[in-house]
Amino acid sequence: MGTEEIKKDLDVNKWFSQLTYDQWMAIPASGARPSARYKHAAAVADEKLYIFGGSRNGRYLSDVQVFDFSSSTWSSLRLKSVLQADQVKDNNSQEVLPATSDHSMVKWGNKLLLLGGHSKKSSDSMMVRYIDLETHLCGVIETSGNTPVARGGHSATLVGSRLIIFGGEDSSRRLLNDLYALDLEKMTWDVLETTQTPPAPRFDHAATLHAGRYLLIFGGCSHSIFFNDLHVLDLQTMEWSLPEIRGDLVTPRAGHAGIAIDENWYIVGGGDNKNGCPETLVLNMSKLAWSTLTSVKGRDPLASEGLSVCSTLMDGEKHLVAFGGYNGKYNNEVFVMRLKPRDSLRPKIFQSPAAAAAAASVTAAYALAKSDKLDFSNINLNPRVIESNPSEQDLTIEIDAIKEDKKVLELSLAEVRAENSRLREKIDEVNSTHAELSKELHSVQGQLVAERSRCFKLEAQIAELQKMLESLQSIENEVQILRRQKSALEREMELNASAQRQGSGGVWRWLAG
């Protein structure tokens, strides 16, 4: 069944109870729909989806649209500028916020923070604007410190009270891979210095935070290359890494949207300027394994670039909310996915409080132990600590389960060590091959230099021969001239001789007479 058919069947008043787990559905909506768009920004606050800006047919947008999940109604939010707050007349958002595309929006307290983006009103540094959700006032927040250059297509990730900005494209289309942090309490910018190899400069990627410590960067593009790599920055050591990823093969993409919920990072849409990506991906951030949650048709609005995705809680369950995008057609529908609870996927050992407490103790002891074996006599399994009145048989079963988990962990550790050994061998082999190729390259480069020198010599000899040929031609011309002069001289001498013979005969005839 397609999304259009599902949409017609849904009841406006109780549509969320009719959603199928892990499947996208277009939900009904009343009110004036916002214009279709892409590269907008979206955020959820107080059971409402806020949409700001974006682009359509090369034109930047500046409106603020609100979708109320409780009533499935669209409305336009009218804002007041801080400079006009004392005036009675309200001004619409087009007058107080510049038309912007490819920006970021983050909820902070009772405000929506708008960061960067491309706009006709250009600036040298990244602007930070805000929308107050209570008063509907908006304005510019003054910041200080090492402010990043103005850009769009960047990522903004909330880490505690800091916003981490990565990458993007500046107004001159220069690609970036720098890293900045905005302290939201002091409103000061700092440059973050990192070690190891950072991601290549890119824009329209996705970023998220895992375990409060790791910044993940996925996908994006340069002006000619689309990426499917996953980079991880340890925010404590400030080291970049490119970990090995397991699971499904992920195609390169840009303009996708991502949202992290617990251990899972959901990636929706994106494309490569030719085809949209129809699958909704899930990255288990603890296992670093990709899987495909669901897939749509190639021309479905969810297989678009420049769409947005957020998460919200409805009827006690978590849902994904997608809006907008472009896949040959601009979109303005709201799609919702009801996420299947992942608690049932946990091991059985974690399903009882007593077992969870015991497992936590064993896990901590296992992580700290330097030896390969565990001494369970040192682990506190006091019945008073674990459970109020557990039976000895229950404790024995749980301890046996813990031992089984320990064996599994040890087997996994052995597999990882074996894999590391194989990888080291591959690395050594690659390094050896690289050394041989480097030697061969140097040899070829030496031969190339010798051939170039030989070519230069041959060119010099050819030039000399050409000069000699030119001089031979001039000599031949001079010989021809001399030959003509000789012929003329010989004719002249013959004429003179003939004249002298005729003159001498006349004298003798005169003397004889």
UniProtKB/TrEMBL annotation:
<dbReference type="Pfam" id="PF24922">
    <property type="entry name" value="ACBP4_C"/>
</dbReference>
<protein>
    <recommendedName>
        <fullName>Acyl-CoA-binding domain-containing protein</fullName>
    </recommendedName>
</protein>
<keyword id="KW-0175">Coiled coil</keyword>
<dbReference type="InterPro" id="IPR011043">
    <property type="entry name" value="Gal_Oxase/kelch_b-propeller"/>
</dbReference>
<keyword id="KW-0880">Kelch repeat</keyword>
<dbReference type="Pfam" id="PF24681">
    <property type="entry name" value="Kelch_KLHDC2_KLHL20_DRC7"/>
</dbReference>
<dbReference type="InterPro" id="IPR056819">
    <property type="entry name" value="ACBP4-6_C"/>
</dbReference>
<keyword id="KW-0677">Repeat</keyword>
<feature type="domain" description="Acyl-CoA-binding">
    <location>
        <begin position="397"/>
        <end position="500"/>
    </location>
</feature>
<feature type="coiled-coil region">
    <location>
        <begin position="399"/>
        <end position="502"/>
    </location>
</feature>
<dbReference type="InterPro" id="IPR015915">
    <property type="entry name" value="Kelch-typ_b-propeller"/>
</dbReference>
